[in-house]
Write a structure and sequence with these properties.
2 helices, globular, 21% helix, six-stranded mixed sheet, alpha+beta, 60s Ribosomal Protein L30, Chain: A, 6 strands
Length: 131
C-alpha cells in the first residue's frame, strides 16, 4: 500500500522519464515534499530556455515553486536543496539567482559539479520541503 502522494501540475514541466514531479509523504500532522530535480524547461512548451546559467537557475526555481505550490507547500517551507552544476565556474552566477528566492531564511544546501546533466543544461535543482 502506497502511503505517499504523487504530485503533478501542468504549471510545471513534465517529467523527462519515469518519475514524478514531486511526492508528498505524511509525517505526523505535516507532510514532507520531495521535488524531483528540475532543469530549465519552459512548462508551456516543454523546451529548454536559452540564456546564461543564471537565467537557467531562475527558470528552475520558478518550476520548483509551482510544483511546491501544487503540493500545498512554498519556497518558505523548503528545508534542503541540492544544486547540480555542469561546472563550479558557474557557482557565483547561479548562487546569485538562487539567493533571490530565499531572502530571510535560506534552507540547508549542497552544491556539486557533475560530469553531465539531462539535455546538457548548466543547472539542476532538487528540493526537500514540508507542508
Amino acid at each position: 500500500m502506497r502511503v505517499h502522494e504523487v504530485i503533478h501540475t501542468d504549471k510545471g514541466p513534465a517529467a523527462l522519464g519515469p518519475y514524478s514531479q514531486a511526492t508528498k509523504l505524511p509525517v505526523g500532522d505535516r507532510s514532507l515534499v520531495f521535488v524531483a530535480g528540475q532543469i530549465p524547461l519552459d512548462p508551456a512548451t516543454g523546451e529548454l530556455i536559452g540564456g546564461s546559467a543564471g537565467d537557467q537557475a531562475h527558470r528552475v526555481m520558478q518550476n520548483v515553486q509551482v510544483i511546491l505550490e501544487a503540493a500545498g507547500s512554498s519556497l518558505d517551507q523548503v528545508l534542503k536543496t541540492t544544486i547540480f552544476l555542469s561546472s563550479m565556474d558557474l557557482f557565483a552566477e547561479v548562487n546569485e539567482a538562487y539567493a533571490s528566492y530565499f531572502v530571510d531564511a535560506p534552507p540547508a544546501r549542497a552544491t556539486v559539479a557533475v560530469a553531465g546533466l539531462p539535455k546538457n543544461v548548466e543547472v539542476e535543482i532538487e528540493v526537500l520541503g514540508y507542508c
